[in-house]
Design goal:
Butyryl-CoA Dehydrogenase, subunit A, domain 3; five-stranded antiparallel sheet; 19 helices; 12 strands
C-alpha cells in the first residue's frame, strides 16, 4: 500500500475509534432512558413522553453518527478500490466525523444528568489521540484548505461507487434535469404553476413512474429483487433540477405501489400497478387530516358501508398532487369506534378526473361530491398540496385495498408505503442541496468583493468545506439505507436518514443563500427557491419531531441493552 494510502487508512481508523467512543455514550444514555421508561418489561410510550427533549436529541445524535459511520465505510471502500486517489473523500469523511462528534458531545454536555451521564464520562470518551484528531480536523486552516479543494474540483465529491446500471440511470436523468426541468423550474415556482406536460410526458416515456414496480406488473424493477437505490439516484437528479417540479413525482407512486404490493389482491395489483407504472393515472396520497398529521391512528374521515361499496365523509389536507392525480390513496375509518385506534382504518383507491386547476369539484353519477383546493405555500410549488372534502362520496367495494380482508389493515399499508417515502425524501434533500452547492461554487468564483472573488476568503472556503462534507454524508446515508431496505430491513434507518438529511438541507440552503448575499434573497436567482423548498422537507413524510420521538427513539430504546 502506498504511503499516502497508509496515512489515510490510519486517519480513518482514528476517526472510527473516536466515533465509536461517542456512540458508546449514546448507547449508555439510551440504556438509562430505557430503565426510566420501563413499565414491567416493556417501554411505556407515556413514560417516554416525559423525556421528549432527551429523546429528540438522542435521535439527532444517533442519526448523525449513523451517517458518519456510513461515510467512513465509503471512504475506506474507496481507498481499497482506488488506493491512488487524491484523498479528498477521506478528508471530507474525517471532517464530517469530527463535526458530528463535536455536535453530539455538545448536546450531551449541555445537560449530562438528563442523559444519565457525568461530565467525567463525556470527557473520558475522547482520549488524547481523539482530542488531537478533533483539533486537527476542526482547525480553521484545515477547513479552508478543504474548501479550496472544493473550488478547484468544481464541486466534484469523488467517486460514488455506483454500479454500471445505476450510473447509467443517474446520467440519463441528470441530462433530463439539466435540459428540461431546470429551464422550467423558475417559471413553475414564480408563477405557481402545475407541473407542465413538457416535464410529465417525457418522464412517463422514460419509465420513471415504474421504478418501484416489478416487471410482472409492468414496471422496471426486477421481480425477484428490489431496487431502492435506483429510485434514490433518479430522485436525487430530478430534485437537483427542481424539488417541486420534478423531484417529488416518484414519491406518490412509490407509496401507493408499496401499499398495493404489501396488501393488495392479485386482481388489484394486476389492474392498478401497470397503470401506475406508466403514469396513467397519476396518483396522490390522502392520509393527513386537519387535526391529525403524523398521528395517523387518529384519522377520522368516515367510511360507511353501503350496498356494493362505501361512502366517504370528512376532510383531508396536504394531499400533494391531489388535483392532477387521477387516483387517490385515501385512509379512512371503517370502524366508527375511535377506541379501535389504528385497527379501525382501511385504505381505499378513489378515482377522479385529473385537473390542472387550483380548485376542482367532482360529482360522479354514483353519488356524492369531492372538492379540492390548493393550499398556498411559500415553496414546493408545481406539485401543489390540496385540501379535500368528501361529501357522501361513493367508492366501490372493489376499491378497498386488500378486498374484504383489507378492512382494518389501512394503517399497516400506510406504514409500508411511508418507509419508502422517507428514504426518498432524504434523496430529495440531497438533490436540492446539490443544486444549491453547485450554484454556490459558481458564485464564489464569479462574485468579486474588495478586489477578490469571495471564494478566495477563508470564511467562504470554510462554508464550502462544511457544505461538501455534509452533502456527501447525506448522499451516503441514503445509498446505504437503500441497500438495507432491499435486503428487507432499514425502515428505522430510513426515518433517521430522512431526519438527518432534511434538517441538514435547511442549514445547507441557508449557507448557500449567505454566500450569494443579496442576490440569494432576490427572487431572480434560484437560491431563494432552494431555501424556501428546503423548509418543507422536515415537515412532510413524517415531521422531524414525530420521527425522532415516536419512531427512532422508541426503536432505539426498545433495543437498548
Amino acid at each position: 500500500m502506498a504511503e499516502a494510502s497508509k496515512d489515510e487508512l490510519q486517519l480513518l481508523e482514528q476517526a472510527g475509534a473516536v466515533l465509536a467512543a461517542n456512540r458508546g455514550l449514546i448507547d449508555r444514555a439510551l440504556t438509562v432512558l430505557k430503565a426510566n421508561t420501563l413499565d414491567g418489561d416493556r417501554v411505556s410510550p407515556a413514560k417516554l413522553d416525559d423525556y421528549q427533549l432527551v429523546s429528540y436529541e438522542l435521535s439527532l445524535c444517533w442519526a448523525e453518527c449513523t451517517a458518519a459511520s456510513f461515510l467512513l465505510c465509503h471512504a475506506r471502500r474507496l481507498l481499497d478500490e482506488a488506493p491512488n486517489a487524491d484523498g479528498f473523500t477521506t478528508s471530507l469523511a474525517c471532517l464530517f466525523c469530527a463535526e458530528t462528534i463535536a455536535s453530539s458531545t455538545a448536546r450531551l454536555r449541555a445537560r449530562p444528568a438528563d442523559f444519565g451521564l457525568t461530565e467525567e464520562e463525556i470527557s473520558a470518551a475522547t482520549d488524547s489521540a481523539g482530542a488531537s484528531f478533533m483539533a486537527s480536523q476542526l482547525a480553521a486552516d484545515n477547513l479552508a484548505a478543504i474548501g479550496a479543494r472544493v473550488l478547484d474540483r468544481d464541486g466534484d465529491l469523488g467517486a460514488d461507487l455506483l454500479g454500471e446500471h445505476h450510473t447509467m440511470m443517474r446520467d440519463t436523468f441528470r441530462r433530463f434535469a439539466d435540459d428540461v426541468v431546470a429551464p422550467l423550474a423558475e417559471e413553475v415556482h414564480r408563477e405557481d404553476l402545475i407541473i407542465p406536460a413538457e416535464i410529465l410526458e417525457p418522464l412517463k416515456e422514460m419509465g420513471m413512474f415504474g421504478l418501484s414496480i416489478p416487471e410482472t406488473y409492468g414496471g422496471l424493477q426486477e421481480d425477484d429483487k428490489e431496487d431502492t437505490k435506483g429510485m434514490i439516484v433518479v430522485t436525487e437528479e430530478l430534485s437537483r433540477g427542481s424539488l417541486g417540479a420534478a423531484g417529488s413525482l416518484i414519491t406518490r407512486p412509490e407509496i401507493l405501489s408499496r401499499a398495493l404490493l404489501k396488501g393488495g389482491t392479485e386482481e388489484q395489483k394486476h389492474h392498478w400497478l401497470p397503470q401506475l407504472a406508466v403514469g396513467d393515472p397519476l396518483c396522490a396520497v390522502a392520509v393527513t387530516e386537519p387535526n391529525y398529521g403524523s398521528d395517523v391512528a387518529g384519522v377520522r374521515l368516515k367510511a360507511t358501508a353501503v350496498d356494493d361499496g362505501w361512502v366517504l365523509n370528512g376532510a383531508k389536507t396536504w394531499c400533494t398532487f391531489g388535483g392532477k392525480a387521477g387516483v387517490l390513496m385515501v385512509l379512512a375509518r371503517t370502524n366508527p369506534d375511535m377506541a379501535a385506534g389504528h385497527r379501525g382504518l382501511s385504505m381505499f383507491l378513489v378515482e377522479k378526473p385529473s385537473s390542472d386547476g387550483h380548485e376542482f369539484e367532482v360529482t360522479p353519477e354514483s353519488g356524492g361530491k369531492l372538492t379540492g383546493r390548493a393550499i398556498a405555500t411559500m415553496g414546493y410549488r408545481g406539485m401543489h398540496s390540496y385540501e379535500l372534502f368528501f361529501d357522501d362520496f361513493f367508492v366501490p367495494a372493489s376499491h378497498m385495498i386488500g378486498g374484504p380482508e383489507g378492512e382494518g389493515q389501512g394503517f399497516y399499508l400506510a406504514m409500508a408505503g411511508f418507509a419508502g417515502g422517507r428514504i426518498q425524501t432524504a434523496a430529495r434533500a440531497v438533490g436540492l442541496m446539490r443544486a444549491a452547492f453547485e450554484r454556490s461554487i459558481s458564485y464564489s468564483k464569479e462574485r468579486v468583493v474588495f478586489n477578490h472573488p469571495i471564494g478566495d476568503y477563508q470564511l467562504t472556503r470554510v462554508k464550502l468545506a462544511r457544505m461538501a462534507a455534509h452533502l456527501l454524508a447525506c448522499r451516503q446515508i441514503t445509498y446505504e439505507v437503500s441497500d438495507l431496505m432491499d435486503k428487507g430491513s432499514g425502515d428505522m434507518e430510513a426515518s433517521g436518514a430522512k431526519l438527518f438529511a432534511s434538517k441538514t438541507a435547511e442549514w445547507f440552503t441557508r449557507e448557500a443563500l449567505q454566500i450569494h448575499g443579496g442576490m440569494g434573497y432576490a427572487e431572480e436567482t434560484p437560491t431563494s427557491r432552494y431555501f424556501a423548498d428546503a423548509r418543507v422537507l422536515s415537515i412532510f413524510e413524517g415531521a422531524e419531531e414525530t420521527l425522532a420521538l415516536k419512531v427512532i427513539t422508541r426503536s432505539l430504546v426498545e433495543n437498548a441493552a
